[in-house]
Amino acid sequence: MAKRIVLADPRGFCAGVDRAILTVQTILKAASARVDGLPPVYVRRQIVHNRHVVEDLAAQGAVFVQELAEIPDEAAAAGIPIVFSAHGVSPQVKAEAARRGMHVVDATCPLVSKVHREVLRFVREGYEIIYIGHRGHDEAVGVVGEDPVHVHLIEHEADVDSLDFRPEQKLVLLTQTTLSIDETAGTIAALKCRFPWMKEPPSSDICYATSNRQAAVKLVAEQSDSVVIVGSANSSNSVRLMEVAQGALGERGRAHRVDDANELDPSWFDGVEAVGVSSGASVPDELVAGVIEALRAQGFTDVSTVETIKENMHFVLPAELRRKPSQARQCACSPHRLWWDEAYSKPYVRVFNANDGAATVLGIAAGECSILAVDGKVTLTGGSAVNADADGYAAAGLSATGAPVGAVALADRSRVLAATP
Q1: pLDDT tens digit string along 39-74?
Q2: How far apart are CA 341 and CA 136, in angstroms?
Q3: 29 within 8 A of 62, measured Cβ to Cβ
Q4: Which among 179, 345, 367, 374 is placed 20 to 30 Å from 397, CA to CA?
Q5: Which of 287, 412, 316 lies closest to 360, judged by CA?
């Protein structure tokens, strides 16, 4: 019997990574030749945590910097685009960019932006925030930077003992989007045990792509004697993926992480009959193809795929790269205007009346789908209904024509914003 390769599906690029890379590529393609010697675009930090992606974009003309201070004033004055990476930035970085008059294009993943907004909302409501994340990771630095006084970062279950809150203090839990679900389970259990009044957000902060890739690699590992994860060492989700694979393998074999096929060690596969292969959310599929070819050369010629879910998520480009959106048609009974924007991992709608929080009927231009929120239900044109959570969020499925309705609606008690491509 031929030795086997078991591929995980889904793997590789997620919607947030694809959006961030496309953001830089779009700027590069639109750039005209300059006579002042300035580059077409600057990118603060790695746009995504993958060495090959960064090197490829740098070869096309993008200049990567660690901090905004490395960007000359002439570039800011000339309006050279400054792209913020998919991992997000702190308010302090945004303030520095504004002070220097920089032309910022924010490629922060919408799911990371969601956590930033959660921080601001919960702090506004008087909460202390326990944030599970990796100290020093770009995403965690940006989230904690929203309010370092009220956001308390912990990494491991053992860190729970270092926290000290009283029952009268309002507590809420948030997490970094790229963590392992298994990795956080013990920490969350310890937090609930010590602070039983702690609140959790309406939905998990761990993103859909992280969860999907971890679920797929577990099944792959069950059918394999060894697993190879393609991804860079500074990619949190790639490292977590390797850890999840190792946990599923147990004593049967080893999980390894490589940047590309050149890092494969043939000795890893001595006595191995089946090798599982997956990749982190910031990894181009051609790097996976290279690993597969290298494994074929070692006799792993039978390739099969384990598919757990079809991903069709897409985030539109940052607003700075799109035409200014037009005003959506207003429902006669609503004083609100709808503006397009993107944020969450699946369609949502949040509806409030401007004065008392009561339900409001809104007409959405895309497909002209009416949405009625009453008593925790959201009813769409066509009579379908879904449950809303305690904060008023509800999955908004299809328009009257059967097309997806936007991405996310954000709201407060003075306005309603809706999202769509």
Answers
A1: 999 999 999 999 999 999 999 999 999 999 999 999
A2: 29
A3: no
A4: 179
A5: 412
**Termini Cα distance of the chain:** 49
| Separation of alpha carbons 341 and 72, rounded Å | 31
Calpha distance 22→87 (Å, rounded):
15
CA torsion through residues 384, 386, 388, 394, sign? negative
Nearest residue to 402 (alpha-carbon basis) of 366, 361, 374, 373: 366
Instruction: Please give the DSSP secondary-structure letter assigned to residue 336.
Output: -
The CA distance from 153 to 144, in Å, is 7
- 217 close to 229: Cβ distance less than 8 angstroms: yes
Which of 414, 412, 411, 371 has its CA nearest to residue 395? 371
DSSP string over 69-128? GGS-HHHHHTT-EEEEPTT---HHHHHHHHHTT-EEEE---HHHHHHHHHHHHHHHTTEE
pLDDT tens track for 202-240: 778 999 999 999 999 999 999 999 999 999 999 999 999
The pair of three-digit structure tokens given for residue 326, joined into one six-digit string: 């037009």
E strands of 243-390, at which residues?
Answer: 255-258, 274-279, 300-307, 348-350, 362-364, 369-374, 377-380, 385-387
Structure tokens at 209: 């792509």
pTM, 2 dp: 0.77
CA distance 192 to 352: 31
Work out whether the CA dihedral 235, 237, 242, 247 comes out positive or negative. positive
Q: Six-digit token pair at 318?
A: 């940052």
Q: Which of 139, 155, 183, 243 is the catalytic position?
A: 139
DSSP 8-state symbol, 326: P
Q: Has 139 been annotated as catalytic?
A: yes
Q: Are 325 and 339 in contact (CB under 8 A)?
A: yes
CA distance 54 to 27: 15
Residue 10 binned pLDDT confidence (cut-offs 50, 70, 90): very high
Buried/exposed code over 73-97 (b: 16+ C-beta within 10 A; e: otherwise): eebbeeebbbbbbbbbbbeebbeeb
Structure tokens at 84: 């913020």
